Amino acid sequence: AMHEASHSGRRYRSYNRRSNEHSLYTVELLGELQSALDDGQLSLHYQPKVNLASDQVMGLEALLRWEHPVRGRIAPDQFIPSAERTGLIHSLTDRVLDLALADIARLRAEGLDMPVSVNISARNFLDPGFADRLLEKVRVSGLPPCALELEFTETALMADPDEVIRALRRLTEAGLELAIDDFGTGYSSLAYLKRMPVTTLKIDQAFVRQMLEHPVDEQITRASISLARDLGLKVVAEGAEDAATLARLRDYGCNAAQGYGIARPMPLEAIIAWAHDRGL
Ligand code: C2E
Ligand code: CA
Ligand code: CA
Ligand code: CA
Q1: Looking at this predicted complex, what is its ipTM?
Q2: What's the whole-model pTM score?
Q3: Atom 35, ligand 1: which residue's CA is nearest?
């Protein structure tokens, strides 16, 4: 598939720049990821998204963490790409969904009923059973489908746009929220954006993080905000690291922001305490 080809092309180039040791490390990690799944070494951390007009927390993003018994914490960027290439991503995403649904129930028991978003790989949408499995998990959890939001990149549509759009339609019709992640970094953004039944666009942190130092980043961020608004989408800026960036995003009419300037991702119990501290 087109996506696989360009994706692996990119990986190949980045591996060339690294040492042999690094790819060996990746192979080893992948073997260990199966035991991580079996031994409960995976958990989710949560980062809040805040509405810039009202300062209210409008949702949480679930971010995967691997606590390796020997190597310590391993960042998702170090194992998710290999899990995507090998197909292990299917069991990994299933696990992430199980963890997220359990955590959402705990959040609600604490009076925190904001939507939680989960990252879904492009590869997951190529699995014809994916949407059904996901909807069944939500049904069994007894939670309202709107408690769960899915974040995915435009590359999800590259391989089989019609098939993927059908799956996305089923998910929105069931009541799930859908968000385009890393907007501006993928391929053919605008053409796909028009066809996707999404409600939210997330501007990639690559544009937001240093936008006050780099005018081009700021222009891209500003243009993405107005594009999203013209299309009737909610827009969330990622990677807002300080108060000045948050203020500028608010001036541009960005709906919400996420970033170290608000809070870092944190374990479930810590995010519950953080939310309670804010009076939630
Ligand atoms: P992402 O979906 O774009 O997630 C945002 C990343 O930016 C997170 O990194 C988060 O910790 C980081 N971040 C948030 N605010 C700031 C900020 O102000 N400054 C900076 N410098 N960084 C910030 P993390 O947790 O390391 O995740 C990296 C990527 O791994 C994610 O990027 C996502 O693509 C992937 N990922 C994480 N969890 C999952 C998962 O459960 N499933 C899948 N398929 N992918 C995941
Ligand atoms: Ca994300
Ligand atoms: Ca992102
Ligand atoms: Ca990203």
Answers
A1: 0.98
A2: 0.92
A3: 76
